[in-house]
Every structure is written in C-alpha cells, then in structure tokens.
Amino acid sequence: MSVSAIFGSRLVAPPPSSAATKAAPPPQRLAVGRYGGGSCGLVIECSSRPQKKATKHHMKTRPRKSCPSDIRHGPAVYPPLPSLPPEWSFVSEAAAAAEAPPQPVQHE
After folding, report:
1. How far is CA 70 from CA 11, 22, 42, in A?
2. Which candidate, 48, 72, 51, 47, places its Cα nearest to that of 61?
3. Distance (Å, rounded) from C-alpha 41 to C-alpha 36?
4. At CA 7, angle to CA 4 and CA 9, rounded to 5?
5. What is the rounded CA–CA span in Å between residue 40 and residue 62?
6. Cys staple from 65: which of 4, 17, 31, 70, with CB 3.0 to 4.6 Å?
C-alpha cells in the first residue's frame, strides 16, 4: 500500500543521505483528506486486495470433513414427530368455502 493511498496526497521527503549534512527544508504540507487538503477524513483511492464479503468468506473458510469417519458420517436420524392433538385440525378449501361468511352486526 502506498503512502499516497493512505494520506491522499504526496508527502515531501528530505533528499537521500548524501545531502544529510545540509539542513533539509521542513515539509511544506502534510494534508489528510482530499487532494486540495479538505476537511474530510482519509481518502482511499484503490484497494489492491479487497476483502471478501460475509457469505463468500464463510463459504471459503467453513470447516471441511477431512477424517474418514467424518466423511462416512451421515445426517442425524430423529424419531418422527407425534401427531397433532384433536383440537388442532387442518381446514380444507372445500370446507372453508362451504361455511357461510360471518354476518355483519346490525344496530337498531
């Protein structure tokens, strides 16, 4: 990652060590923000290694079956659910159509 990607502008650096004996001028500007040195936060120009989104990451890093015993292991077998009690019943479409709709209440 480059420094310009973090700070959004170029940094002024002193010349190489051959001129280290001379007094280096102080940096003119260290701006964090937009190109004009605005008041915004950090500007990220481009990401060379974007992160995976949540589902893609979980699919890539999920635990795999590697042991032979795990590979041969099948899904759990549960006993069947008990039947519904008599007060619970399913209504068929024919029975629902045969019933008359409720009458509106008339005030006298």
Report:
1. 56, 70, 48
2. 51
3. 13
4. 60
5. 39
6. 70
Please name which of 29, 33, 35, 32 lies closest in space to residue 12, comparing C-alpha atoms: 29
Place of tokens 């006993």: 79
Q: What is the pLDDT of residues 34-67, one digit of tens each?
A: 555 555 566 666 778 788 899 999 999 999 989 9
CB 32 within 8 A of CB 42: yes
Q: Are 41 and 65 a contacting pair, CB within 8 Å? A: no
